């Protein structure tokens, strides 16, 4: 009998690789699979910038009293290098001129109106040099990659606002079982609430798939066949059939799939519960006949 690992291998062999792609917005990108590497279009950072709130001086400025001549904020072009004996108040993220030096605020003290005293020499490690994180053309996020908040933030920082990702699989789910009623109903004698539908819906949501149709179809073979045929008209990538996958009188999944042109690749798997499992394919659609027991 087919093992679980062998089933996984068969499923992989039936799914086209690589799949289709689409471009989406970053707000839709969570849990999607990136299909093109994210490359830098410029050096990162694109200019020398300050990593601190502190004071800009010349790189060779000694520790001494200096005049405070101005304040510089992020978002502006780099200021001119201050003359020897003077300093510019600088804020984190501000652009810096070449040959700049930085002094941390705690390494200074007031020295009178418009003057401060530098207690240390400039520290070159306080400058985030242009290209120190990555150079233009570097791959910062390989493909394929599962997009998470951190990687989506990275894409935004690179200006990649329409990443190319794998298209979400289109799924149709049909639930068999004449005894099933909606969960918000009180079952009559002999009936049970349908929990397969919500199980599959939540699983598909967690795996970022598109549920095209979900329907309870009972046990009538003719109606079941018709529902399968109509479902195929929506061109799903995956057809899920809950119940009807075993060998009982109402288990029509295997024979109906064959009538509709599917090739059956598997009918059982070596696992309990969950032994009845149909794996089939027709054109681009992969069908799964699943046990009706949600635990299975």
Automatic annotation (TrEMBL):
GO CC annotations, alphabetized: cytosol
Pathway per the UniProt entry: Cofactor biosynthesis; molybdopterin biosynthesis
Function, as annotated: Catalyzes the insertion of molybdate into adenylated molybdopterin with the concomitant release of AMP.
UniProt catalytic activity: adenylyl-molybdopterin + molybdate = Mo-molybdopterin + AMP + H(+)
PANTHER family per UniProt: GEPHYRIN, MOLYBDOPTERIN BIOSYNTHESIS PROTEIN
InterPro entries reported for this sequence: MoaB/Mog-like_dom_sf (IPR036425), MoaB/Mog_dom (IPR001453), MoCF_biosynth_CS (IPR008284), MoeA-like (IPR038987), MoeA_linker/N (IPR005110), MoeA_linker/N_sf (IPR036135)
Obligatory cofactor(s): Mg(2+)
Entry's family note: Belongs to the MoeA family.
Residue ranges constituting the MoaB/Mog domain according to the UniProt record: 172-296
GO molecular function: metal ion binding; molybdopterin molybdotransferase activity
Native organism taxonomy: Bacteria, Pseudomonadati, Verrucomicrobiota, Verrucomicrobiia, Verrucomicrobiales
EC numbers on record: 2.10.1.1
Name the record gives this protein: Molybdopterin molybdenumtransferase
Native source species: Verrucomicrobia subdivision 6 bacterium BACL9 MAG-120924-bin69
Transmembrane segments: none
One GO term of the biological process aspect: Mo-molybdopterin cofactor biosynthetic process
Top EC group: transferase
CDD domains: MoeA
UniProt keyword annotations, A-Z: Magnesium, Metal-binding, Molybdenum, Molybdenum cofactor biosynthesis, Transferase
Superkingdom of this protein's organism: Bacteria
């Amino acid at each position: 009998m087919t093992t679980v690992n062998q089933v996984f291998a068969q499923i992989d062999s039936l799914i086209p690789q690589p799949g289709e792609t689409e471009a989406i917005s970053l707000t839709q990108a969570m849990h999607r699979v990136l299909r093109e590497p994210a490359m830098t279009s410029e050096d990162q950072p694109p200019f020398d910038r300050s990593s601190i709130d502190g004071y800009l001086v010349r790189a060779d400025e000694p520790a001494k009293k200096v005049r405070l001549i101005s304040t510089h904020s992020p978002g502006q072009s780099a200021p001119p290098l201050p003359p020897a004996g003077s300093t510019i108040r600088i804020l984190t993220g501000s652009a810096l001129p070449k040959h700049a030096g930085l002094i941390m605020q705690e390494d200074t003290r007031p020295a009178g109106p418009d003057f401060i005293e530098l207690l240390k020499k400039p520290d070159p490690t306080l400058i985030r040099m242009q290209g120190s994180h990555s150079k233009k053309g570097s791959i910062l996020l390989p493909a394929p990659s599962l997009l998470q908040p951190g990687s989506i933030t990275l894409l935004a920082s690179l200006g990649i606002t329409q990443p190319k990702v794998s298209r979400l699989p289109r799924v149709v789910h049909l639930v068999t079982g004449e005894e099933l009623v909606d969960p918000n109903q009180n079952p009559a004698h002999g009936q049970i609430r349908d929990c397969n539908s919500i199980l599959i819906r939540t699983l598909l949501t967690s795996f970022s798939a598109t549920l095209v149709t979900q329907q309870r179809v009972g046990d009538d073979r003719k109606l079941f066949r018709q529902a399968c045929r109509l479902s195929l008209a929506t061109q799903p990538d995956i057809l899920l059939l809950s119940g009807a996958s075993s060998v009982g009188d109402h288990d029509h999944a295997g024979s109906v799939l064959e009538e509709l042109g599917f090739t059956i690749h598997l009918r059982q798997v070596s696992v309990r519960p969950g032994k009845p499992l149909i794996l089939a394919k027709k054109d681009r659609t992969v069908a799964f006949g699943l046990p009706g027991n949600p635990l299975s």
